[in-house]
Amino acid sequence: QMADPFLYNTGDRSHYGCLGHEVQIEYLKAYVCRPSFSTDKAVIVVHDVFGWRFPDIRYIVDLIAGHGYIAICPDFFKGTEPWRSTDHWGDFADWMKHHDPMKVDKEADVVLKYLKEQCGAKKIGVVGFSWGGMAVHHLMLKNPQLAAGVSLYGRIIRDSEERYNLLNPTFFVFGEKDHTISLDQIFLLEEKLKQYCKVSYKIKVYPGQVHGFAQLKPEDMKPDDKPYIEEARKDMIDWIKMFV
């Protein structure tokens, strides 16, 4: 039985009025927010288990757009039900079997094509949270079109040495108190990246932070966590700005 991975009560979040709009891209729905000026840079945001409509993820999309990027969060669950805060954790493993974060390549390609052909994007990065963090790790091993990636508290998959041959610069964000990812796993990731990775990478652990910390809206933050949440977001944006 896995404990609820969020220390923050996901059912108890403030409402969020979005700045962007929804679009249909081939078979995918997506949420898009554009900056106030024209740009050829874009960022794909990969949602967590709560899906593309979750207010926290839309807040992040809007935040990234505010830094001058066309930001888009496609529905990687392709219209199927996201995980709900009322669902039972006993069913989570079974749910994950039908929502595999390693099977996002086709959706990523559809969105990349849209960004290039419809939005004029020439450089594209990707950021993902939790489930999406795992997806980002996978995409940065497989898709050379993604100029940079930020994986935020994606569980670390250790199935082969190929997990460390990143194609482009990738930044891994972790919370020190995340009970889904142990510090041992993080140290091992660092060791393996040193050994196998040929591109820039960075791993950073934020003190006292739990799973899901970096995507909270300001009004949902606890005062002690606020500086770390803001730092993680600034680090995420800085990494994107460096490479995208």
From TrEMBL:
It comes from Mionectes macconnelli. Pfam families: DLH. It is found in: Cytoplasm, Cytosol. This is Carboxymethylenebutenolidase homolog. Residues 29-242 form the Dienelactone hydrolase domain. One of its GO terms (molecular function) is hydrolase activity. It comes from the Eukaryota. One of its GO terms (cellular component) is cytosol. Belongs to the dienelactone hydrolase family. InterPro entries: AB_hydrolase_fold (IPR029058), CMBL (IPR042946), Dienelactn_hydro (IPR002925). Its main location: cytoplasm. Gene3D superfamilies: alpha/beta hydrolase.
